[in-house]
Amino acid sequence: MTRTKATEDPARLPLVGDRHVDPHSYPDGIAFLDGQYLPMSQAKVSVLDWGFLHSDATYDTVHVWDGRFFRLDLHLDRFFGGLEKLRMTIPFDREGVAEILHNCVALSGHRAAYVEMLCTRGASPTFSRDPRQAINRFMAFAVQFGSVANAEQLRRGLHVAISDKVRIPPASIDPAIKNYHWLDLVRGLYDAYDRDAETALILDFNGNVAEGPGFNVFCVKDGRLSTPAIGVLPGITRRTVFDLCGEEGLTAEAADISVAALKAADEVFITSTAGGIMPVTRIDGAAIADGKVGPVTSRLMALYWRKHDHPAWSSPVKYP
Ligand SMILES: Cc1ncc(COP(=O)(O)O)c(C=O)c1O
């Protein structure tokens, strides 16, 4: 009997969205692992790594736009802060990590890239249950830039559902340690899909709005901006919105935001390194204000992208 390998007959490959894809294919990009630069398909970790077994890891993601890193220093600060809090050590200092990130992007050739640095607890050579025996592992990679919102969603605004799932509280995990504890966020995402929305927001432990899978949220009411204060990752894009508001003379504060207040806002947007500032125009099936992308959101979106070639906010990738 002759058997065709699944990969030779495209129709037999798993259907992802509307395409049949090879489950073992990887995005085009370059990873750094164990002192080597590798194609993404060859960058593999042990199943015994605590990063995989226990989500014992921290990471950061910075983007490259038009050949320039955006606010790399802030991402490095957050990453090294997470390492210290988790008592992880890596054999590189800030300059060393920055150089690896530059190399990953340069070798990938991407001019718009999603660039991740990460450290896992690692594995213990003796399968010890003591995390101090594990050998921490630093990795990094650069793939093509990806956004939470696609072009159409950026134009007309995202449709969001508010899930009743509760974000892991800060007393359990300090959200300033950027982490892979995403089961709450992923379950929220499925709640959103079940309700025909495109993405989700989940709640903090008091029932106020917290954040979504990979983004913070802002609302605008009577010209004033606010974003949830507690139980959320202090996002670099969130921080950038505060900085832009400072420059523009807009008032922005971190405060509790109830679900009702979010739905009654004049404008809502989300923020992430994966996409920047992205408008939200429907929540739980109802329009926010007139259902159009608002003027404050549009202004901040334009300013945000304009800063990407400003030397105080961005730095060129060292391509060969
Ligand atoms: C849970 C969570 N909140 C917020 C954000 C946004 O953070 P930043 O603006 O630094 O990308 C992210 C980014 O990955 C995230 O994972």
Description:
Helix content is 26%, strand content 29%. Strand 12, helix 6 and strand 13 (252-254) form a beta-alpha-beta unit. It has 320 residues and is α+β, with helices and mostly antiparallel strands. The model has no long low-confidence stretch (mean pLDDT 95). It has 8 helices and 17 strands. The chain starts with 14 loop residues before the first strand and ends with a strand. Bound molecules: pyridoxal-5'-phosphate. Acts on leucine, isoleucine and valine. One of its GO terms (molecular function) is branched-chain-amino-acid transaminase activity. It catalyses: L-valine + 2-oxoglutarate = 3-methyl-2-oxobutanoate + L-glutamate; L-isoleucine + 2-oxoglutarate = (S)-3-methyl-2-oxopentanoate + L-glutamate; L-leucine + 2-oxoglutarate = 4-methyl-2-oxopentanoate + L-glutamate. Its EC number is 2.6.1.42.
Order of helices and strands: EEEEHEEHHEEHEHEEEHEHEEEHE
Largest sheet: 8 strands, mixed
> Count the helices. How many?
8
Name of the CATH superfamily of the largest domain? D-amino Acid Aminotransferase, subunit A, domain 2
> In CATH's first tier, which class of the largest domain applies?
Alpha Beta
Structural class: alpha+beta
Integer tally of domains: 2
What's the average pLDDT?
Answer: 95
The third-level CATH topology of the largest domain is D-amino Acid Aminotransferase, Chain A, domain 2
Under the CATH scheme, which architecture of the largest domain would be assigned? Alpha-Beta Barrel
Structure ligands: pyridoxal-5'-phosphate
- Radius of gyration equals 21 Å
Bin the strand percentage: 25-35%
| Low-confidence region ranges | none
Q: Which overall shape is indicated by the principal axes computed on the Cα atoms?
A: globular
Overall helicity: 25-40%
Distance between the termini: 51 Å
Strand elements, count: 17
